[in-house]
Amino acid sequence: MTNEHVLAHDAEKLKQYQIDSDICIMEVCGTHTTEYFRTGVKDIFPPRLRLVDGPGCPVCVTPNHYLDHAIALAGQKDCIIATFGDMVKVPSSYSSLARESAGGARVEVVYSPVDALDIARQNPHSEVVFLSVGFETTAPTEAVTVQQAREQNLKNFSLLPGNKLTVPAVKALLDAEEVNIDGFILPGHVSAIIGTNAWKFLGSEYNKPAVVTGFDDHDLLKGTLLLLTLISENKPHVLNEYTRVVRDGGNQHAMDMIYSVFDADDSEWRGIGVIPGSGLLLKDEYADFDATKKFTVDIPEPKEHPGCRCGELLRGLILPTECPLFGKGCNPEHPIGPCMVSTEGPCAAYYKYGR
Amino acid sequence: MCLAIPMTITKIEGNKAVAESMGVEKTIDVSLTPEVKLDDKVIIHAGFVIEILDPETAKEIEQTWDEYIKTMENEQ
Ligand code: SF4
Known about the structure:
The structure holds two protein chains of two kinds. Chain A is α/β, with parallel strands linked by helices. Chain A has 15 helices and eleven strands. In chain A, the strands form three sheets. A five-stranded parallel beta sheet of chain A has the order 2-1-7-8-9. Chain A has a four-stranded parallel beta sheet with strand order 4-3-5-6, sandwiched between helices. The longest helix of chain A has 16 residues, at 217-232. Chain B has one domain (7-75): SH3 type barrels (Roll), CATH 2.30.30. Chain B has one helix at residues 55-75; strands at residues 7-13, 16-21, 24-29, 41-45, 48-53. Iron/sulfur cluster (SF4) binds next to α14 of chain A.
């Protein structure tokens, strides 16, 4: 069979899949949220299959307090904030980096954390603070960046630690028992780092099937079909559909890199609260590169927009369209919450694809 | 964030490398995959190679999955 035939065959199988009772599956990764729409795979879901979004958009789960801290740092004299683009438009408690930048603060968007080192070299009289957010896929790139900063003796570079770990978050969701999830579509590139084995607990401890899945239409179709089969056959296995990239043990070198620079610690997630062991803080030996230790700034008391329901969304309790502000007070031009801003945000995906 | 399109390594110099896909070239960092070599197909995230693809294994594995799904179907 050619690729096209396989695709058509799998698509037909998914359309025709017989489901006798309601099934709810969760994708943990923000890129999957968007790709399910973009590839059209979500459009051919059989009746009674519901896909909810998990806590897998790094910008969305970053609490206001972090952004407020970043904005306070941006207000210092001779400070440059370097950040991934997604963070710029996210509303904080009282402002956003975009608004601060329009008001004169220096905010530079980078594609890679190492680009922030170039900015530091080019601006020796300024302090460059990189906003270190992201999950296990991004954390090793930030760890390498800190190591390179030390090797290059860059004294004017630091990062604001905000990295989060997905495994403790998924555990916390299941332990909260707020939503009944029948199975998980697991993130492809987080799993490339941590390995399929890191998810085995879902089957052994929680009796939940799960499939590590890649990002193209073949992957999404196969991953979804496999997960449905596991659910309907009551087999709580954790399988890997994305074997061309993800190994059982992950990328051990990248894992070692993370834990040579960071330590796991409790961390606050937007709308979920503090999850034990779910964040990464810089080790004491890297305190010189830790913006929380290097600078003392006044951070205002954080506040949330009372109507925004990102929190419930990130816990799989509602769909974006069930937020009363969706498409009314809140849209990508005037976002109220981060889920409408990030390219991986569920509200942005539903808005873009008109659902 | 999770760009899934594999790129091909065309040049390596220390921990920096050049990767190409469909005529687009990118300078990237290979610190997370020290075993990377020329012509490898790689997955890139935030300017870093995070994993190397084996094209042969990839093909084989895809076939295995097709068979796996078929077997599951027949069992049903
Ligand atoms: S639609 Fe806007 S206000 Fe509602 S949950 Fe999404 S981001 Fe928040």
